[in-house]
Amino acid sequence: MAEPEDDRLFILGAGRVGTALAIALARAGAAPGLWTRSPASADRARRLTGRPCWQGALPEAVGQATRVIVAVSDPAAASLAGALLDGGLLRSAQVVLHCAGGRPAAEALPGLGPPLARGTFHPLLAIADPEDGARHLRGAAIALEGDEAARRAGAEVARRLGARPVELPAGGLLAYHTAAVLASNHAVALWAAALELLGLSGVPAAEQLPALLPLISSTMENLGALGVPAALTGPVRRGDAAQVAGALELLERAAPHLVPLYAAATSQALRLARALEDPALEPGLRRIEELLRSRA
Ligand SMILES: NC(=O)c1ccc[n+]([C@@H]2O[C@H](COP(=O)([O-])OP(=O)(O)OC[C@H]3O[C@@H](n4cnc5c(N)ncnc54)[C@H](OP(=O)(O)O)[C@@H]3O)[C@@H](O)[C@H]2O)c1
Predict the structure, then answer these.
(1) Closest to 166 measured CA to CA, from 150, 155, 157, 175
(2) How far does residue 191's CA lie from ligand 1's centre (Å)?
């Protein structure tokens, strides 16, 4: 598919996200320009995309692009935007999109302003590898925030990737990003705690992760099929206060650093169990509540 005149994309930064976007856009028939700072990242990007990748000084070719996607690490974004302006490299650009989700584009790209539109373009994915990231972009949510023209351009790029554009107000970005951190980064922290407890239980080290993964994937399947609160299973879902008391006593004795995490997760599970509106559960849920209160 030929690139429409007003849709010339350039991606700055061939890290995990920039390269994943370049691979997926090339597969979707777009031909984004790509630049990165280091020779190693440029070599990897050329190998993975099968396309050119500029390296070193910002190339004149950026000046041809109408849409620029900034996919460098967060602290580098503002100075890179400044370098683009100082170098006169935004002469064709109408829109600059920024891939971080933690703060609005107006804060992340402070030097840019009208007539340029700036916006957030944040894939809601944990991208550890560009090739996997490119695969997962199809169907992923992409949060869009910022100037109207930037949100419109971001939505077009998202649709081109087969992703799901989701528009957010600037004021919603912090809650959105915190949700992403809880669902992904902190879920890893939670699983690490579970692995630690499997170690305490006597499951051999080599068996711990293989034992945990089917539990996690079946839980995610339940979540996809049933949503919340129906996907909740386990002692709180059953109102089993004796099991919760036993777990708390074990943790206090053998892994006291995990008590606050267990208590916080139990308290959230309690809210979900209450949302099931099952009167038969209430006595057990009240006892669990008392157990948590007595340790607060
Ligand atoms: N990874 C994720 O799961 C994920 C998900 C959604 C959004 N994001 C966002 O996407 C953006 C990129 O993240 P990433 O995970 O792709 O990071 P990354 O893999 O660490 O890549 C960072 C990129 O920034 C470049 N860079 C670093 N410092 C620079 C500087 N001073 N000047 C110019 N370029 C510089 C690096 O260039 P060289 O390698 O060439 O040195 C590299 O291309 C971030 O805003 C991040 O918040 C990440």
Answers:
(1) 155
(2) 26
In short, whether 15's Cβ falls inside 6 Å of ligand 1 is: yes
How far away, in angstroms, is 116 Cα from ligand 1 center? 22
- The secondary element (H helix, E strand) that includes residue 236 is helix 235-238
Our answer on whether the CB atom of 180 is closer than 6 Å to any ligand 1 atom is: no
- Measured in whole angstroms, the distance separating CA 198 from the mean position of its chain's CA atoms is 27
Does any ligand 1 atom lie closer than 6 A to the CB of residue 93? no
CA pair distance 137, 163, nearest whole angstrom: 6
For residue 41, count other CB atoms closer than 10 A to its CB. 21
- Residue 281, CA atoms < 13 Å, CB-side half-sphere: 21
Q: Note the Cα 24 to chain centre separation in Å.
A: 17
Check: pTM over 0.85? Answer yes or no.
yes
Q: Are 148 and 117 in contact (CB under 8 A)?
A: yes
Confidence of residue 6 (pLDDT cuts 50, 70, 90): low
Q: What is the pLDDT of residues 99-149, one digit of tens each?
A: 999 999 999 999 899 999 999 999 999 999 999 999 999 999 999 999 999
Helices 130-137, 16-27: axis angle to 10 degrees equals 50
State in Å: Cα 40 to ligand 1 middle. Answer: 14
**Nearest of 35, 39, 78, 77 to residue 60 by alpha carbon:** 35
- For ligand 1, what atom is nearest to the CA of residue 14? 43
Q: Are 171 and 103 spatial neighbours (Cβ–Cβ below 8 Å)?
A: no
Beta bridge pairs of residue 54: 35
Q: What is the pLDDT of residues 154-186, one digit of tens each?
A: 999 999 999 999 999 999 999 999 999 999 999
Is the distance from the beta carbon of residue 130 to the nearest atom of ligand 1 less than 6 Å?
Answer: no
Please give the Cα distance from 53 to 77 (Å, whole number): 19
Which helix (H) or strand (E) element contains residue 70? Answer: strand 67-70
Reduce the DSSP state of residue 121 to 3 states and report it: strand
